[in-house]
Amino acid sequence: MFLRLFAITCLCACATFSLAPDKVFTHIIKTRSIDLNNAHGLAMENRLGRNVVPTGYYLELEPYIEDGVYEGRVVINVTWNTETDEINLHCAPDVAIVNSKVELFGESGKSQEIAITQIDTDAKKSTLKFQLEKSVPASSIGALDLSFKGKMETSTSEGLFKSSYKTDQDEERIVVATQFRPNNARRMFPCFDEPEFKVPFDVSIVRPLGMIALSNMAISRVENITDEPNAELVHFKRSPPMSTFTMGFVLADLVQLGNSIQYSDKTSNNFEMRVWGRPEYLEALQEVPDKFIRILNEIAEFNWPPLPLDKLDIVALPNYQGVKPTDNWGLIVFRESDLSSSGHIQLTHEVLHQWLGALVTPAWWSDAHVNKALVGYLAVETAYKINRGCEMEVKWPMTFLYSLYYEYSKRYPHSRITGMKQETVSTKIELLFRMFNYTLGDETLKKGLKMFVTQRAFQTFDGDFLWQSLNTAASEAGNSQKIDVKAIAQSWIEKDRLPVVTVKRNYDSKTAVVSQKLYLRERPHDVPDAGRMSWWIPLVVVRGDNLDFNSTAPLAWMKDQTLELNNMPSKEHFIIVNPEEIGPFPVNYDEDNWNLIAEFLKTERRTKIPELTRAKVLHDAWNLAFAGELSFATALNMTLFLKHEENLPVWDPVFTMIDHIDRHIWDIRDKFNAYVISLLRPPYIKLTKDIDENEKSWRRNMRNLFKTFLCSAGYKPCIKDAQEQYSKWMKAQNPDEGNPVSDRYLCPVFRWGTQEEWNFGLQRVINFPPSRKQSERTYLLKTLSGCCEDKYKLTRLLNITLLEENGNFTERDIFLINNMFSDEPVGHTTLLHFIDDNWNIIKQKYYHRTNLWSHLISTATSYFTTKAGLDLVTQLYVKHQGEFGPAEHIIEKAIRNIKEESKWSSQNLPVMEKWLDDYLERNGVKVEKKY
Prior knowledge:
This protein is of the alpha+beta class. Helices cover 39% and strands 20% of the residues. A hairpin with a 4-residue loop joins strand 24 (499-506) and strand 25 (511-518). The chain is globular. It is a lipid-anchor; GPI-anchor. Belongs to the peptidase M1 family.
C-alpha cells in the first residue's frame, strides 16, 4: 500500500512554522572565508540558487524492510527571495518522484496551486528543476509537496541503508538507519541538501511493531495504522532549525541500557540521555553513560549555549560499516566496538559535533576543514583532561606534527595521494588552534569560542567568523601585542608549506637574530617563490637560566624574514624557541646553543625540560641535519642523553630518524648499526625486567619498538630468539599447512639468518597452498625480499621470478618484490646489476609490458644516494642509451636526483662516520661486518 497522504489541514499547519525572525533561514553567508586553495570534491559542487529557499520540512517515510525499498512524502515550506518561475533542489537519480505539487499561501491562509509544466533532472549533479507555469513574486510563501520512492542501500552504510546481523541465538535481525553526512540526504528524499539551509524538521516514520524508532527528537505521539496491524506511525517532535546532513533516524531491534539519565549542567543543558544496543551487547556498554556524563561536564566548562534538544540517544548499531559515527543532532550512532572501546577521544569528538556542526554549522564544505580542526583539537584537549593523557600516551601533538613536517617539506607535497591533502590541511588548522591556545591563553581562547558559538547558534559560519571571535577576545583580554588572528591563521592556511626558524645568538651583546624560511627536507631545494614565503610566527622563548615552561606569551610575533631579540641570557645558558611545539615549525640554532642544550640534557636536571620539548629539540636536530641545515655531528650529539631517557614521546623521533637515515648510509651501515644497538640496548634491558601483565600500554609499545629496531640492527639475542622460534616451523611435519610462529620473527631471520633458513622461507612461498589466506603469503614474500641483505639470495630470487618466470610467482609478485627492493640499498643495487648482466633477456621479456618494465627500471635506478650509486646508474644509462623506451625519462630523472643526493652523501657521510668512529671507540663498541 502506498504511503498514507496527509490531510490538507496538516499541509496548512506545515506552512506556518512559528519561529522567531532570526531563526528562520535568512542567514546566507556572503563574506568570503580564508581560501583553502585546492578544496576539491564537495567544495567544488555547484550550489543551488537562492531564489527559492526552504523554511521547514514535514517528512513521512514508510520503509518496506523485507523488500529493501521505501515510499515517502515530503512537504517543504519555501519562501521566494526573488521573483522566479522555477524551483531547484537536490534529488539523487535513484529516488523516483511519484507526485509533485507546488502551492502558494495567501494572507487569508488559502492555498493556490501553481502548475508544474516540466521537471528536469540532472543525474550528474543530483538536482531537480521544477518549471512553473508562471513566475512567483518575491516574498511569497508556499510549499513543495512531493511523493517519492526509492531503494535502501545494502552495500554501504550511507544514505538510507539496511543491514542485518545474527543474534547469539543465530537469529537474523534487520537494521534500517541513515547516514546523511556529508551530502547523502538527497539519496533518500528530495531536499535542499546544503549545510546553509537550516530549518526545522517534522518527521514521521512507519515502524514495525517490536522495533524501536529513534530520530533527532523525542517521540511526540504514536498512531495506529488501521490496515497494517503489525506497524504503527511514529511522530517525532519538531526539531530546531538544522541542516539536512544532521537529520537522521534508526529502526532496529535494540533495547535501552538501564534507565534514562536526565542530564543537566551549569550551562542550562537539560535533556534525557539514553544508550541503546542489542541485548547481548549491553554488558560491554556499562561504562558508556558515565563516559558521556564526564565528557558533557568537561564541555560545560566552555560555557556554550545549551543544546536545544530534549534528548540525546547514543546507539551501538550492529554491523554498522561507516568510516565514522553518524553525528545526527540528538542521535549519535556508533559501531559497537567504537562505543565500547576504552578511550574518550572519539566519543568526545562526536559529542562536540552536537554544538560544532549541528548548532553551529559550516556554511560550505570548504569551511568544514575549520570545523573539523576545531572539533579535533577540543576533543583531544577534553579527553586529555578526563584521563590525564593516558589515552594519547602523551604523544599528541607529535604524531600529527611529524607527518605534517615530512609531507610539507617535500618538493611536491601530496603528489602521490592527493586525497591526503584535505586531511593535512585540517591537521594544520588543528595545530593552529593549539598554537592560539598557548599564545593567546586558555581563558582567551575559551572566551572567543563562547562568543563564536553564541553568536552563530542556529546559523552557519565561515572561517572569518571564528577568527574574528578569537581576535575580539584577545583585544578584550588586553593583549599587549596588537595581532590579527585572521591574518596569522591565513599565513599558515594558504600555503601547503611550513617554515623553519633559525636563531643565531650574539653572546657578547646578549641578542639573537631570528630568521625564517621555507622548510625543505627533500632535495633539490628548488621550490618556486621559496624566498618570498613568510608566516606569522610566535616567538616563545624559554631561557636556561629560568626554566619557565608555563609562560607561553610570545616575546614577539614575527612576520618579516628577520627579527632581533634582546635581553637574552649569558653564554653559559641555552635558549629554546617554540617549546612544546607551540607552533608547527622546527627551530635551528647556532652550534654553541645546540651544544648547551645537549650538555644540559646529559645532566640530572634534564627533566626540568618537559618531555615534549625534549622530543622537539631531538626531532628538530635530526630533521635539520637530514635537510642539510645542521651538522650530523651536532644532531648525533643530541642523542647522547637517551641512555637515561624512559619516556616514549622522546624516543619516538629517534625511531623515525633511524629508519630515515638507515636508507642513506649503506657504506657505513655496520658502524651505524653498532651505534643503534649501543643506544637502544640499555633502556631495552631495563624495559624487559619485571614485566607486569597489567603494565601500561605505552611501556609495552615502547619495548616492542626497541626490540624491532634492535633486531633490524642485528642485536644477537634478538636474532637468536628469532631463529629458535623459526626452527619450530622448519621442524614441522607439514610446514605448508601454516606458520606456527609469530610473523615478527621472520624479518630478523631473513636479514641475519642462514642460507638454509632463507631457502626454507622461499619454498614456503613457492608451495603456499591456495586454501590458506593469501595475505599470509604476501607478508612472507615481503619479508623474504625486503629484509634480506645478501645479494646472492636476492639474485636467486630474481632468477626465479624474472628469468625462469616460475609459475608460482605472478606479475603482482614481481611488483611487490621491486617495491621491497626500493627500500634497501642491497636490493636495488642487486637489481641494477641483474638487469645489466641479463639485459637482452630481460628487455625481450618485459619491454612491451610497459608498466612492469618502467617499474623495474625505476626500482633499479631511482633510489641511490651516493657518488658510487650515481656511477652505476650512469654507466647503465650510457651502455644502453636509447634502449630504455618508455623508461628513458625515468632513468634520466633518476640521474638528476641522484646527483643532488650524492652531494648530500659526500657532505654528511664523512661527518657521520667520524662521529661514529669516535663514539664507538670511546664506548668500547666493536663493529661486526655482516656482509
